[in-house]
Amino acid sequence: MKRLFIPSLLALTALLSSCSVQSRNSGNDIVVLPLGGEVKITEGSMVYALPLTVFEFEITATRTLGVPGPYANYAAEMIGLDNIIEQEHEYWTLTAVRLNSFEELDPAHFYIIEGTSLMQTNLLLLKESGLVLDINPAIYSRTGFSQIRDRDEETGTLFPDRGAYEYVATRTDTAYRVVKADTAFIRVPYLVQKKRGMTVEEEAREAADRLLELREGRHMILTGETNIFPQDGAAIDEINRLDREYTALFAGKSFTESRKFHVWLTPDLSMAGVKTTVFNFSAAQGVLPAESREGIPVQIEIVPSGKTRELKLVVRPVVSQKELTARDRLYYRVPDVAGIKVTAGEETLCTARKLVYQFGNTVTLPSNFIIGK
Q1: Most buried of 51, 210, 234, 256 (most Cβ within 10 A)?
Q2: Could you tell me the CA-to-CA distances from 203 to 124, 139, 238, 330 in Å, in that order?
Q3: DSSP assignment, residue 26?
Q4: Residue 136 CB neighbours (<10 A)
Q5: Looking at the predicted structure, is the pLDDT value of residue 175 above 60?
Q6: What CA–CA distance (Å, rounded) separates 65 from 88?
Q7: Cα separation of 305 and 341, whole Å?
């Protein structure tokens, strides 16, 4: 009888010990709480955030600057040009709009994971999948852009060769001086040279004559009617260069440069299905802020697909008070697919389909999904 009692006692002791360990471990060793309010970060806690989609617009615009020539008023009369630059102007054209997206930390959704015992976690897997974000994501290392641009505008004198043979005209006149000779006075003639600057019309006339001579000489070289100039391409190239320079004296010059701008936009639910102005574009001033009253508004329209709309309805009923107060749930965000169209007036500049996290839903997983073995 004593022999049977001892094994039974040992088995009961082991069972009670097992129940005691199970009772101690059945509590919530892992707590996941939203950061803020009275919730503070304690030593040994882990912090993560939910992703937030941000749109980046990469805008390419071309700036054209037109400068009239010094002889613009005589273009039609002397060389027969009518489509010329008559006054200095600047205008812009919108070349391209490219839409990029990336994920940032949502400042309204920071969470801390606290553990009262040793934790083994594979939270990194959810970070790599994009469901949650590290508080130091690598995206912030590539969102800066230099505003220093290489300018294509010409510097220095725009029209160094005005096309005239000389710019000062010399006129010789005969003057007289009175000289006393014995008892009489006589007039002695002498020559006087006077210099005066040429008028703009005279300079334009000489430039037009030289331009027409260049064109005639080029025609003679190309048709083989002359052997005065070298019979090779160097002569033709130089004549073409001079032709362009002298023509610009009447027609004017224009310079173009391409510039890039970056605009960031964080979508929210109020933008769904409506047009939102991203920036304004003016032909006279280029890319302007969205608040500007100048130019044409460039707008974005975001239409969520609603793929995650039903996620909130799939909730398992709470069957106990313990589940009602459970804090061992991991929060993560499921993005929604959105169709995007960027327009300027009636013209469509860009279309895309993007994942937008804030248009999706925030749902929960048991913390042991990523914490533990």
Answers
A1: 51
A2: 78, 62, 22, 83
A3: T
A4: 8
A5: yes
A6: 8
A7: 14
Residue 27, Cβ density class (10 Å: 0-12 exposed, 13-18 middle, ≥19 buried):
exposed
- DSSP class of 134: -
**Tokens at residue 15, please?**
């069972």
Phi, psi (rounded to 5 degrees) for 89: -150, 165
**Distance between CA atoms of residues 18 and 16, nearest Å:** 5
In DSSP terms, which residues pair with 178 in a beta bridge? 187
- Give 188's pLDDT tier (boundaries 50, 70, 90): confident
Token pair 């327009």 is found at: 343
> Whole-model pTM?
0.67
User: Which residue, among 35, 115, 34, has the nearest Cα to 331 in the 3D structure?
Assistant: 34
Element counts in the chain: helices (H) and strands (E)? 6, 11
